[in-house]
């Protein structure tokens, strides 16, 4: 579809000693940039419904499909309590949705909120139809990430795997890295409303970030086997304590201590809406990835970066910046 592009110009005419300036407008027809077609896999989940609303409201993208094994046949707009139905039924067949989008030859992204046991096959299907993937699933295994990395290498197709979509979580990780250069004692305390496998992906990522700095923490207590002292993650003494407390928000606190002081960094998630700015940023980023780039969001390196993208197990990185008005 073409859209008019108009420009305002001035022409200068010289009549004897006088210079006359006359404005004119020229218009030309240029092809308009089409929206990113987004398929939400796991659309009936709380985070999936929030993603449908966020993508619908965002500029430059639109919901093109909703996949889930629950509420099959229902309009995803109605399920999300939107003012008007989207006329997009929930379908329990990812291949059917991908096939209809691929025929239109438009740019497409599959957002995967399903399960770590199915995500590999889901990404393979999306890649077969020429679509990139943004993966945010709990408890994804390193072996699965490695397999996806190898597959994306072979297919020359990008896939963004996000341990977190929370910008606040990324900023907490950045602050923890900065603090680790000044303190030798550090412990992580986290709480979740529902029992899940602990430690969480956030705690694991924080400990990895701190361990990669080459420091040894909690030297006076590094070898204790007392269960109440929490689990040591890695070989550098970072301990994590996980609590299940219904009624509390999803919370992560990193405690540092030094002689005569305690420094703590805390991040709470009270609503799944907090993940939507990061999701929209990931969707916009993944379509711009160069071939052979398969990614893992790691951590922030400056206050305006959502994360770093690790290329397989190599040491080269690809950063992306926070964009203003990300929800528009």
UniProtKB/TrEMBL annotation:
Residues 170-288 form the Dihydrodipicolinate reductase C-terminal domain. Coiled coil: none annotated. InterPro entries: DapB_C, DapB_N, DHDPR_bac, NAD(P)-bd_dom_sf. One of its GO terms (biological process) is lysine biosynthetic process via diaminopimelate. Residues 36-162 form the Dihydrodipicolinate reductase N-terminal domain. The keyword NADP applies. Keywords: Amino-acid biosynthesis, Diaminopimelate biosynthesis, Lysine biosynthesis, NAD, NADP, Oxidoreductase. It comes from Salix brachista. Belongs to the DapB family. One of its GO terms (cellular component) is chloroplast stroma. GO terms for molecular function: 4-hydroxy-tetrahydrodipicolinate reductase. It holds the Pfam family DapB_C. This is Dihydrodipicolinate reductase N-terminal domain-containing protein.
């Amino acid at each position: 579809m073409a859209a008019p592009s108009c420009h305002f110009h001035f022409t200068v005419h010289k009549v004897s000693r006088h210079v006359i300036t006359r404005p004119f407008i020229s218009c030309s027809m240029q092809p308009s940039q089409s929206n990113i077609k987004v398929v939400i896999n796991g659309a009936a989940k709380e985070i999936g419904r929030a993603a449908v609303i966020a993508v619908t409201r965002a500029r430059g993208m639109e919901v093109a499909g909703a996949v889930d094994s629950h509420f099959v046949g229902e309009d995803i707009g109605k399920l999300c309590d939107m003012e008007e139905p989207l006329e997009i039924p929930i379908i329990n067949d990812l291949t059917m949705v991908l096939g209809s989008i691929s025929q239109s030859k438009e740019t497409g992204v599959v957002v995967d909120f399903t399960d770590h046991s199915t995500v590999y096959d889901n990404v393979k299907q999306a890649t077969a139809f020429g679509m990139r993937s943004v993966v945010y699933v709990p408890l994804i295994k390193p072996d699965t990430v490695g397999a996806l990395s190898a597959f994306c290498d072979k297919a020359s197709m990008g896939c963004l795997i996000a341990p977190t979509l929370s910008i606040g979580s990324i900023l907490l990780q950045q602050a923890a890295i900065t603090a680790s250069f000044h303190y030798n004692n550090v412990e992580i305390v986290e709480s979740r409303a529902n029992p899940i496998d602990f430690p969480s992906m956030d705690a694991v990522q924080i400990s990895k970030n701190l361990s990669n700095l080459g420091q040894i923490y909690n030297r006076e207590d590094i070898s204790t086997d007392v269960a109440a002292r929490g689990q040591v993650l890695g070989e550098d003494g970072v301990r994590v304590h996980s609590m299940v407390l219904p009624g509390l928000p999803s919370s992560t606190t990193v405690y540092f201590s030094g002689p005569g002081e305690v420094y703590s960094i805390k991040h709470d998630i009270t609503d799944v809406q907090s993940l939507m700015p990061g999701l929209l940023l990931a969707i916009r980023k993944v379509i711009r990835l160069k071939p052979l780039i398969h990614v893992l969001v790691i951590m922030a390196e400056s206050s305006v970066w959502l994360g770093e993208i690790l290329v397989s197990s190599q040491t080269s990185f690809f950063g992306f910046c926070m964009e203003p008005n990300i929800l528009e």
